[in-house]
Amino acid sequence: MVGVIRRLHKLKAILGVRHGPGAAVLPQDVSRIHMEFAHLFNDGHMGPRKFWRTSLPRLKYWNPAIPMIVNRVANQEGPATLSIYFREPGVTPKGDVQQQSSSSEGFSKAPAPAEGERVVQIDMKGRHSDQILSEFMAKSGAVPVTPTAQEEMEIREAEELEMKAKIDKERVRKMVEESKREKRLIQQAQSEAAAIKAAL
Amino acid sequence: MASTTNCLASLARLSLSAPARPTAVSIIPKFLLPSAATPLARHASGGGGMRKKAPKKKKTYKTFRSYDLTPMEQFSLCDAMRYIRAFEVGRPPASVKYELSVKLKTGKGGPVVRNRIRLPFPVKTDVRIGVICPDGSALATEAQQLGAVAVGQESLFDSIRQGNIPFNRLICHTDSVDALKKANLGKILGPKGLMPSAKTKSLTSDLKATMQELIGADEYRERAGVVRMAVGQLGFTPQMLSDNVKSMMTHIKEDMNEIDDTHIKQLDEVVLSSTNGPGFSLNGSFSSTDPKVGPEHLQSVM
């Protein structure tokens, strides 16, 4: 198995899932979230994809009980919509609301709102993920989470580590390039020497 | 072309004679010249100059490396699940699995931990069993009743030789062992890992017990000091996953106890990961450290 320190550095990714754009606590009355967009980024589906890959994990971390369903479809020309389902105030949630799980084959269409539910939709097509996120925050009424002093320090440490890694990567890249260049020169000289021998 | 070759030849001669003044047209760098041309290093101490140093021998270890776990951040099961569910959000839950890696403190070589386990909540259910037993016997009908997809002896051997293998597990009744040995199917079945043998417990006299164990049973084995197995689907609740992990760990511990005392086997670390997520080292506790998040929050539809 990989060494402990290397795995620990890799695990800094969990800091990224705790904090950053999208780290927010949704209000009590949000019952579920549904996203639908296409597999590829063509035709304006890049923003929704990025929103799913970057912001949705953070939302899921802070709101583990809220179902967040992603339905990816093959049709690139289709719409890209995000639906937020709200529970109407005063309505107790029913336990028997059937919810399909996420699908990568387009089987999990956005469900019609159940009794005592209303839907707010966001059109995501052709928009940047940041724009989608800001509209989502405004329409859902989510409260952003701020990192504690301890976590801020950890984030800074992770960034510093990233900087160090950048320097090291550059150094290693140069070393590799140099050794490749030497190898190439040796090969060239050998082939030239062979040509001379053949000419003699 | 001739002019360049002449030029090169004269250059080579120049360098052979003596290290002359650096010429203006040195094409070949110094380190590329044949070794005979470079002046040999001679030292006053003498003797040692020409002798080659023996290449340093790499140290070999008899055990797999085990690390100090003090810097490792460890998680309770619910915490790890919360992270993993965040990483896997929006993935179809049928295609995402929880995986468990159990690192052992163990020597290289020697016996390995290897067994089959029937998890309380099976992870996969696509087992198709073939049974080798005498054609037309009571055993054959029993095997078919238990859900075997291919039953028989000579008829089954023929279909295997023709490349028709409708099963992904093969067991053999002790009555048919001699026939199996004569059939020479090792070349076909061996590479697929289907050849029945006592080691894999697929050579049996009790078809019923073995088949029931196989249906919903998974195989695990130690490779490079680590036992890895899928222990759950993404849709599992924390309680279900906990049951599976516990049953897996008790099984592995039993297996370790069975191995004789001359070979050391100890539990080192347990890591829970998922298909697309990072690995979380488990600390053995269940409940979440966040008081706002309980197991009931971690069972919504993914």
Textual characterization of the structure:
Chain A: It comes from Podospora australis. Chain A: This is CI-B8 domain-containing protein. Chain A: InterPro entries: Ribosomal_mL43/mS25/NADH_DH, Ribosomal_mS25/mL61, Thioredoxin-like_sf. Chain A: GO terms for molecular function: structural constituent of ribosome. Chain A: It holds the Pfam family L51_S25_CI-B8. Chain B: InterPro entries: Ribosomal_uL1-like, Ribosomal_uL1/biogenesis, Ribosomal_uL1_3-a/b-sand. The complex is a heterodimer of chains A (200) and B (302). A 4-stranded mixed beta sheet of chain A has the order 3-2-4-5, covered by helices on one side. Chain A has a two-stranded antiparallel sheet with strand order 1-6. Chain A folds into 2 domains: 73 residues; 125 residues, 3-Layer(aba) Sandwich (Glutaredoxin). With 200 residues, chain A is of the alpha+beta class. In chain A, helix 3 packs across helix 4. The mean pLDDT of chain A is 89. Chain A has 5 helices and 6 strands, in the order H-H-E-E-H-E-E-E-H-E-H. Chain A is 46% helix and 16% strand. Chain B has 302 residues and is an alpha/beta fold. Chain B has 3 domains: 36 residues, no CATH class; 131 residues, Ribulose 1,5 Bisphosphate Carboxylase/Oxygenase (2-Layer Sandwich), CATH 3.30.190.20; 86 residues, Rossmann fold, CATH 3.40.50.790. In chain B, 28% of the residues lie in helices and 20% in strands. A 7-stranded mixed beta sheet of chain B has the order 1-11-10-2-9-8-3. In chain B, strand 4, helix 3 and strand 5 form a beta-alpha-beta unit. The longest helix of chain B has 21 residues. Chain B starts with a helix and ends in a 20-residue tail after the last strand. The relative contact order of chain B is 0.20. At the A-B interface, helix 1, helix 2, helix 3, strand 3 and helix 5 of A face helix 1 and helix 2 of B.
